[in-house]
Recover the amino acids of this structure.
């Protein structure tokens, strides 16, 4: 870091709006999806029924959370036709746009953990419990095995994501305590703890988007001035290094790590316009990175 | 560094570290899984007064099949259903209703089942009268107004399967000695467990309640044969009465019970074969109330 606050440089270069374009779009996406769900119970306009586990839109479009259905399959139960069609639509969609797009563009808990991350940075809270980022995959395996052993869709008993979303639509009850717990955990105990280390929902979606074509690419990585702002804002900073710094090792500029959430914060925060959304097949010849690239803006 | 000269020692240490890291992760997550497993086991204990929507699978299967989407809640035209909040003792996010608040109105097209994207609500149930959400039980004989000899009858009248799921059985009122009591009697094979009786019970606390079938129902031993049903099936008694050995009943010296059927004592010989003589007559019964209890 250059002694400046994160993103100060880019705001000078691109203006506040330009430096928060993808963040604003993302919040718009998260809030619009939530509003569509809330329109029914609050205003009586039933465009969408249900919640993120399964929803039914305009009487034609079923969408099912494949992770919940997978747990249900492990207990030995098949969904009905609509449930299955919903699974297929969702699987194809996230396979194409990136699995963890769910996390950064849809999940309502993301706003809570992002708020915790932002506050953590503003308050200058240092120190974080160390836990491997792979913990979430262990948790994912545990929920599937546990579902098979107990016959209960196991993670749904405690899943803060569905508790929050379902709670906002159907009545929160004490679910706010769980959400607050996640917020405080991310704020005081572990930096990017929930979404970045523990959540098995995110782990599942990362596997779903393992080969997704839509990616962030460090197309103009030769222009990088090592300000480190992208590493600071990224919820999964480990995914950036190979693409940004791998030129010497012959690694392509595309961020291929499945845990990149395609949130676009790195695109926003880079004053040198190193990053842009691209397809995973993009190859830029070493040395002329991004000279022909139009960038993301 | 020594390890640099000895790659096998280094890889050995790395392997050890990898093994310990893996063990640490497996143990930590396993511990969490154990806790979740016990919680899951607890969550199967549905509270007695929480009822599942029509067609719901048995609780053990329901918690595996239901994906907590709330579509049944949305498509219920009477707002009967609710999704369990985390603090409720019903498994989080699953649909249920409390009959005393809003009972199931038993829609003929069963929209809740149609809306369900899984088999949690059994789509093979197409006749709502065959639903089994629970069984009504007239649980308190001490406060039920009909048991007090009054004519309330509300549970009987609101029942959607009237005169089949609940009948009024007439018995003599022993307290007055001259009136009848009309006892609401549930017949579990016809009761859908909709809860309208419980909802409309006029008492402060309902005397009739819908309970899960496993709480409400007893079960005969599999080897039990009910004599009169076997007799009906066979067309005659399965026991050859002429070969029946009937020992004299032990009665106090000189006691005579009118109508008592005791072939061996010879005391009631004239009463043999007279219809109704086996059943016995309640002493002191007011005239006109000698019928079927």
């Amino acid at each position: 870091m250059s002694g400046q606050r994160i993103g100060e440089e880019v705001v000078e270069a691109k203006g506040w709006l330009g430096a928060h374009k993808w963040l604003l779009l993302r919040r718009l996406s998260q809030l619009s999806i939530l509003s569509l769900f809330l329109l029914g119970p609050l205003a009586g306009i039933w465009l969408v029924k249900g919640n993120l586990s399964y929803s039914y839109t305009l009487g034609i479009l079923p969408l099912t959370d494949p992770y919940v259905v997978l747990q249900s399959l492990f207990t030995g139960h098949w969904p009905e036709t609509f449930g299955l069609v919903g699974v297929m639509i969702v699987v194809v969609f996230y396979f194409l746009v990136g699995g963890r797009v769910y996390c950064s563009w849809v999940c309502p808990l993301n706003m809570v953990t992002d708020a915790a991350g932002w506050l953590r940075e503003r308050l200058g809270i240092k120190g974080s419990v160390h836990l491997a980022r792979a913990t979430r995959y262990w948790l994912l395996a545990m929920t599937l095995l546990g579902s098979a052993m107990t016959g209960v869709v196991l993670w749904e008993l405690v899943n803060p994501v569905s508790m929050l979303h379902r709670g906002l639509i159907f009545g929160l009850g004490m679910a706010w305590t769980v959400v607050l717990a996640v917020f405080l955990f991310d704020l005081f105990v572990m930096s990017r703890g929930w979404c970045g280390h523990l959540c098995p929902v995110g782990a599942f979606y990362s596997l779903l988007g393992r080969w997704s074509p839509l990616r962030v690419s460090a197309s103009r990585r030769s222009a990088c001035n090592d300000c480190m702002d992208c590493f600071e804002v990224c919820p999964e900073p480990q995914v950036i290094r190979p693409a940004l710094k791998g030129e010497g090792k012959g690694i392509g500029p595309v961020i291929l790590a499945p845990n990149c959430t395609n949130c676009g914060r790195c695109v926003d925060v880079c004053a040198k316009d190193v990053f842009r959304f691209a397809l995973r097949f993009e190859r830029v010849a070493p040395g002329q990175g991004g000279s022909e690239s139009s960038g993301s803006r | 560094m020594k390890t640099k000269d000895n790659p096998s020692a280094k890889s050995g240490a790395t392997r050890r570290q990898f093994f310990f890291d893996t063990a640490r992760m497996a143990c930590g997550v396993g511990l969490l899984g154990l806790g979740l497993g016990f919680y899951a086991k607890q969550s199967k204990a549905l509270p007695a007064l929480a009822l599942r929507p029509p067609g719901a699978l048995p609780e053990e299967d329901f918690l595996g099949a239901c994906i907590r989407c709330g579509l049944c809640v949305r498509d219920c035209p009477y707002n009967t259903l609710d999704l369990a909040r985390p603090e409720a003792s019903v498994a989080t996010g699953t649909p249920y209703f409390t009959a005393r608040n809003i009972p199931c109105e038993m829609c003929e097209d069963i929209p809740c089942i149609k809306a369900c994207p899984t088999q949690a609500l059994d789509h093979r149930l197409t006749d709502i009268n065959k639903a089994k959400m629970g069984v009504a039980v007239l649980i308190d004989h001490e406060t039920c107004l009909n048991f007090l000899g009054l004519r309330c009858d509300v549970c009987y009248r609101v029942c959607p399967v009237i005169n089949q799921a609940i009948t009024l059985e007439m018995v003599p009122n022993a307290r007055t000695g001259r009136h009848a009591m009309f006892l609401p009697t549930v017949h579990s094979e016809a009761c859908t467990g909709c809860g309208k009786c419980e909802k409309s019970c006029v008492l402060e606390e309902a005397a009739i309640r819908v309970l899960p079938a496993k709480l409400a129902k007893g079960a005969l031993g599999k080897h039990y044969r009910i004599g009169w049903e076997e007799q009906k099936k066979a067309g005659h008694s399965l026991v050859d009465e002429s070969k029946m050995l009937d020992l004299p009943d032990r009665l106090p010296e000189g006691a005579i019970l009118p109508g008592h059927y005791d072939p061996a004592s010879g005391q009631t010989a004239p009463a043999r074969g007279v219809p109704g003589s086996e059943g016995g007559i309640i002493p002191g019964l007011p005239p006109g109330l000698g019928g079927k209890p």
